[in-house]
Amino acid sequence: MELLIMINACKIASSSRVTAVIPCFPYARQDKKDRSRAPISAKLVANMLSVAGADHIITMDLHASQIQGFFDIPVDNLYAEPAVLQWIRENIVDWRNCIIVSPDAGGAKRVTSIADRLNVEFALIHKERKKANEVDRMVLVGDVKNRVAILVDDMADTCGTICHAADKLISAGATKVYAILTHGIFSGPAISRINSAPFEAVVVTNTIPQEEKMNHCSKIQVIDISMILAEAIRRTHNGESVSYLFSHVPL
Fold it and tell me: Which Enzyme Commission number(s) are listed (predicted)?
């Protein structure tokens, strides 16, 4: 609400252009009607931003890329992938023997892109849910035996999925398990689950501040994506293309 008020205040003060930088887009998971009478909240947020007067949106790793179609104004959906690749190469010694794993079928495109750029193999986990935030059964598709498994997802909320996935990977023979996430929401029992899970590290970007969570969990590490957003703002202000940021980390 504060963002909407600030956008509107800028607009009625005769600003020529208002760009809203929203690193973690709110209600991004409610992008479709998954059951009768359910709201499409992401569309509502898009409408409110447009009506308030926003001319341009900069965000990162939307849960569903079709959310960009909810807007009638330009949306730049930046990717954390270049920063993730850099972190893997710099912090995982045996990264050439790793396997990139998606904790669900919906993230297959994301992990195949990372696996291709690292020239390693990928696997995925098929999960079945009986109700929201509770995973009933998991099936691993791929061979992780004697390899470093890197779970990659766009966000983690209560962390039930990634913690179950980590247990599944260890039981399937993985030597180490890392989790790399763009948006670390970490609500409810998330921190206690991470502390109990067999992760070497849970790596998140700082689209959501993590200082408080890091005080309660030594496994959480942060990738700073502020330079990506800063460069996107600079390029947008100067009328330059932001396409370079889709595959590179600015120096």
Answer: 2.7.6.1
Does 238 reside within a domain? no
Give the range of the structural domain holding residue 11, as residue numbers without chain letter. 1-78
Q: Each residue of 210-228: b (16+ CB within 10 Å) or e?
A: beebbeebebbbbbebeeb
Query: What pTM was computed for the model?
Result: 0.92
* Nearest to 124, CA basis, from 134, 136, 135, 109: 109
Do 208 and 123 lie in one domain? The reply is yes
Q: pLDDT of 156-214, one tens digit each?
A: 999 998 999 999 999 999 999 999 999 999 999 999 999 999 999 999 999 999 999 99
Helical axes 41-52 vs 2-12, angle rounded to 10°: 30
The set of long-range contacts for 126-133, using a CB threshold of 8 Å and a minimum separation of 24, is: 127/103, 127/161, 127/164, 127/165, 133/157, 133/158, 133/160
